[in-house]
Amino acid sequence: MDIKQYAVIGLGRFGTSIARKLHDAGQEVLGIDVIEERVEDAELYVTHAVVADSTEEKALTSLEIGNFDCVIIAIGNDLQANILTAMLLKDLGVKKIIAKALEKRHGELLKKIGVDWIVYPERDMGERVGNQLLSPNLLNYIELSKEYNIEEIMIPQSMAEKTFRELDIRAEYNVNAIALIRDGTIHISPSADEVIHQNDVLVLLGKTEDLANFSKKE
Question: Domains in the chain, ordered, with CATH?
Fold first, then answer.
């Protein structure tokens, strides 16, 4: 696995969760916040943590922020700081910028500045909860586009103890099984003769509507 350098600006709940995930995955993570207490807490789960004001160009320059592979702006309660930070990061030549947006117009402005990926945590979480309520077998998903998703779906009872060949999922549901998760272990490209057990999870790729039909099967 390639180790990359990430900086997370804003160590509230959103920034903290991202920083922890990246650090747990073995990546180098710099945590930045203007609140000293947050920085002290972050030292437990990041590579380095510093107190700095990301709206000051000198502060970002001293951290050599332009050398990082990706910078995540997780500032949520200060719209002006969020936007100004994005502008400075763009000027300093950061390769990839991800930013938290509070609402659609905020996101559109960040996009015009040149932010590569805009995240709407409240909206996305609402959609995720709604999808999981509508499809109880759906455990997790990644939205690839407006039409296509990758989804982790619990095996319906009716499919247990049958092989992929017998189920012929691609022909029957127009989705592709790209992996099988069993007891926490991921098996990529399972064979046609692999038997699916009751507690297995399938990782499926396909159109949103086809995946929704599959996930509702009992």
Answer: 5-121 (3.40.50.720), 131-215 (3.30.70.1450)
Residue ranges in the chain assigned as alpha helix (H): 13-24, 36-42, 57-62, 79-91, 104-113, 121-134, 164-167, 169-173, 208-215
Q: What are phi and psi of 113, to 5 degrees?
A: -65, -30
Q: Residue 51: which residues within 8 A CB-CB, separation 6 or more?
A: 33, 34, 35, 36, 39
Give the model's pLDDT for residue 96: 93
Which distant-in-sequence residues (6+ apart) come within 8 Å of 111 by Cβ? 118
Backbone angles phi, psi at 188, to 5 degrees: -80, 140
For Cα atoms 172, 173, 174, give the angle at the middle one, nearest 5 degrees: 105
SS3 at position 203: strand
Strands 185-188 vs 175-182: parallel, antiparallel or unpaired: antiparallel
Indicate whether 128 pLDDT > 80: no
Q: Which residue has the higher pLDDT, 155 or 165?
A: 165
Query: Whole-angstrom Cα distance, residue 72 to residue 101?
Result: 11
What separation, in Å, do the N-terminal and C-terminal C-alpha atoms of the chain show? 38
Return the higher-pLDDT residue of 65 and 208.
65
Question: What average pLDDT score do residues 84-100 get?
Answer: 95
